[in-house]
Amino acid sequence: xxxxxxxxxxxxxxxxxxxxxxxxxxxxxxxxxxxxxxxxxxxxxxxxxxxxxxxxxxxxxxxxxxxxxxxxxxxxxxxxxxxxxxxxxxxxxxxxxxxxxxxxxxxxxxxxxxxxxxxxxxxxxxxxxxxxxxx
Amino acid sequence: xxxxxxxxxxxxxxxxxxxxxxxxxxxxxxxxxxxxxxxxxxxxxxxxxxxxxxxxxxxxxxxxxxxxxxxxxxxxxxxxxxxxxxxxxxxxxxxxxxxxxxxxxxxxxxxxxxxxxxxxxxxxxxxxxxxxxxxxxxxxxxxxxxxxxxxxxxxxxxxxxxxxxxxxxxxxxxxxxxxxxxxxxxxxxxxxxxxxxxxxxxxxxxxxxxxxxxxxxxxxxxxxxxxxxxxxxxxxxxxxxxxxxxxxxxxxxxxxxxxxxxxxxxxxxxxxxxxxxxxxxxxxxxxxxxxxxxxxxxxxxxxxxxxxxxxxxxxxxxxxxxxxxxxxxxxxxxxxxxxxxxxxxxxxxxxxxxxxxxxxxxxxxxxxxxxxxxxxxxxxxxxxxxxxxxxxxxxxxxxxxxxxxxxxxxxxxxxxxxxxxxxxxxxxxxxxxxxx
Lengths: 135, 436
Fold this sequence. Notes:
The complex is a heterodimer of chains A (135) and B (436). Chain A has 135 residues and is an alpha/beta fold. Chain A has four helices and five strands. In chain A, helix 2 runs parallel beside helix 3. Chain B is built from ten helices and twelve strands. In chain B, the strands form two sheets. In chain B, strands 6, 7, 8, 9, 10, 11 and 12 form a seven-stranded mixed β-sheet that branches. In chain B, a hairpin with a 5-residue loop joins strand 11 and strand 12.
């Protein structure tokens, strides 16, 4: 029996969290949601998360800080992260140095396209292999 | 030369008169004594010569008078020309004086150099910007300015040049641009301090980045929700309805944001004008409260206007002041937890001759570090973004309306966790006690 994958969606915009949760649930994933980076970090440590989808600009911890915090913890270091941003140019040129950040998507984005990216990331995450460049 | 013909004519006349007189006398005094004939012969030419002299004198006099008249006319013309020349000189001096004054008053730095490398203009702004006192030679100017101005002064008429460069001054390095043109053989250059331009560009870039971010957020929701509805994805009817309602809410938010951006832009560029009338702010506050009562009741928030004992009539634009009140009340309701309250009080400050309105809520208050930035464009307290949707422009628009259009003041008082008290004041029209 196939294991249900868990996606953590993090955004301080409830409408975006809602639509992503709806789409990913329809795709057969289990979805956890958080509205800031600090809560997301707690959820990621306490649950078996397969992919994190996070907004960049958030209170407490922003998306890149969340990715760095996940990377720093052995329990969450290998979780692939997708960053959503409305201001991509502010991420800086070295975002790719964050090895767990697999994709940066500019807003507005397509939930369908995002679900496809999640689908591409998941098959190789179950055994914890490095996925750099998979997206 | 002119006297010769006249003398000959007089001599001829004298001879004719002599011969004529001799003939007449010989005929009349035939047989008389020789003495009488001789006397007659002596007298006649003298009379004739005297007559001729008189005639000549009269003619000379006439010519002299004509010459004198011509000289007078010529003299008058010269006097007129001299007066006109003097007037022109005076006008030129006045114009030059005005030009010099204008140059000195110009905020732009202006320098002019002639082909012999003499600095003929270096206005006050240029002296201040380049930090050099009056200099007479182009090479005494800072290097970047000197090279372009010296080259321009030798360039053909009408040549334009533009160059950016940096100079070191006591206050640091200055980024400058010189734009020069050659006119009447003189190179005239305007020096622009690029720091102000670059600062404006930076602020514009920040504004565009913020505006882009804020506009993309509702756009993202609209795009995602529309795709979900198009794809269908066997959504239950209830979910479809919810998606549609969210799309409406987000499109309203987007529309409101664009309206507010345009309003702020109109005010900041000086296009917006107010229709100043007598506005009773107590009445206006009650109207705003009535308009927002439904929203307050839906969240079980008590909303009221405190009684006012004075006449609080301001001079201002009724619609704009009401918009400010609606914005502040709406914010109060949005950020106040259910069961809380939003209270409006209207009062007068007789010393400042202004009407003051307070909007007090029982919400979470404003963090100390956010107070100073609360009225900035697109600024939103990070931790409160999730509490309520906003455009991030409402308070900035309030500030523009109150301070720029009404000459009033706006602010906020808050201590963490103890609610917020937004206030604004606008000039009062008149003050009078209500009869008890």
